[in-house]
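Practice record 12: protein with heme C.
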Amino acid sequence: MMKASSGFFRSISIAMAALAASTLLTGCERPPIDTVQHGFRGTGMVQVYNPRILVPETYKNVVPDALPAVPSDGPRAKDVYKNVQVLGDVSTAEFTRLMVAISQWVAPKEQCAYCHAPGEDFSSDSMYTKVVARRMIQMTQAINSRWTAHVSQTGVTCYTCHRGNANPEEVWFRSPQHPQATRALGNDAGQNKASPNVGLSSLPYDALRDYLSSNPKEIRANGATALPTGNRASIKQAEFTYSLMMHMSDGLGVNCTYCHNTQNFAKWEGAPPQRVTAWHGIRMARDINATYIEPLTSAFPTARLGPVGDVAKVNCATCHQGAYKPLYGVSMLRDYPQLGRVTGATGATGQAAAAKPGMLGRVLFDTGRSDLSAAAKAEIDKAVKAAMADASVKIALSGFTDRTGNPQANLDLARNRAVAVRDALTAAGVPAARIDMRKPEFVVGGADANSRRVDLVAAR
Ligand code: HEC
Ligand code: HEC
Ligand code: HEC
Ligand code: HEC
């Protein structure tokens, strides 16, 4: 792997030298800046690329070669090893291959010794790095199986964030209050101290705290009314929103028009589909930080924590590192499927539209509608009969939409569809206590009639 990438590096150096030479020959001009049209003609939605930056960026995003494949049959890791809590269901050959890969991705110098103390049994949990790594395996599996709305089938591996470093290069910490913040002439409202978190702009430098961890604030700059009545989006809040937008643009190496039709930043209609992916990305980053990374704070030694004692957290740049898709969309996950599903627990939690066991019925809806057709009512009657036959069965309702259009409106629509089915069930005599409302969802990649539905599933 090292050899391949240094060879690559050499050819890049030659390319750079050639580029430099051609620059000398053509005068003092730097290579021209490229623009690529991204939106409708006349909207000015272009992306600006600088070839001088793109070449090193491309080098940074080359993926290491995959390790040779190994058999997935044979004894399971949990039957052979003593303390395997997450990867127990994978074959021992796959387990070992994964340990070798993880060493290359996270600790290429120290290898196994980064997480397993030399001389100790491999089953010991004495090193914090192993404890963190175990949770990171679960986190990676969760990203790949629960957040396909963002990472699609491309997915992530440890390498996406770590790239051969034990500490990912791009992380964020909370900012300590700056000493000048309480100076005589009032406070700086967290502004005017250039921070890489906000693309070195003079916008609020601690904005990620409000948007990418637990208890996030609304990302809104525009009020919904003409007069400021009830409009809580002040200029100050708009500045915080812009901080986040600067971070997102910088982290992906794009400009605002990658996700917005700048005629109206708030409008979803006419915005490129990337904005919807980004919307899911914001929710995913929050989930990664709140569910996996922040609870690990006490596992880390103090030296790893930030100036106010918080753990290094994930933002858009942690995975993207300046590319519109991490590693320019190459999937390493394909070669390490053990990181793509939740192992150890029962079953994966993919969002496939296939009928689940225990299905009592599936009610379909027209685009944008939540009212019940005659076919929908017949389907509900069928489910009521099935459910009434067994008094111990509850009916779990999940509302879905396809993934086109405004995501917030879609969540409302999915909920309204589930509510319509619930009301029909109670009207048919099913007691409310036997109905279990589940979280509304989008169907990933779904744009067909099957995505606009409510599933009725038997639950106990
Ligand atoms: C980045 C941390 C990390 C590195 C590096 C690493 N491991 Fe592990 N290792 C783990 C974790 C985490 C587990 C437990 C997995 C689980 O609970 O599912 C584990 C478990 C094991 C076990 C099972 C021990 C038992 O009896 O329970 C063996 C064997 C093992 N590793 C071997 C290796 C070898 C060999 C290397 C070097 C090629 C290596 N590991 C590198 C994190 C690491
Ligand atoms: C979404 C990004 C992301 C992914 C994917 C990821 N990590 Fe991490 N990892 C982090 C962050 C952030 C930290 C905290 C870094 C710090 O303290 O500077 C971290 C820290 C660690 C540490 C502690 C290192 C130290 O020296 O303190 C280990 C070990 C680790 N990760 C292993 C793994 C393994 C193994 C995988 C794959 C199964 C993985 N990580 C996947 C983001 C990620
Ligand atoms: C990678 C995609 C992406 C990029 C790049 C991006 N935005 Fe956004 N922007 C979004 C998303 C997604 C939202 C909605 C966030 C939410 O509701 O959770 C948003 C919301 C906004 C809002 C709030 C609109 C409202 O509803 O009040 C403004 C203003 C905004 N962006 C401005 C910008 C500016 C200025 C830039 C360039 C510096 C930019 N954005 C770059 C994805 C992006
Ligand atoms: C855990 C890693 C990870 C994090 C964190 C992450 N992304 Fe992504 N993102 C991905 C992957 C992987 C893809 C590629 C998916 C694909 O191939 O379709 C992607 C794709 C995208 C795309 C689609 C690009 C295109 O041209 O289709 C956008 C936009 C995006 N991310 C925005 C964001 C924003 C904004 C954030 C931070 C709020 C973010 N991402 C955080 C992993 C991540």
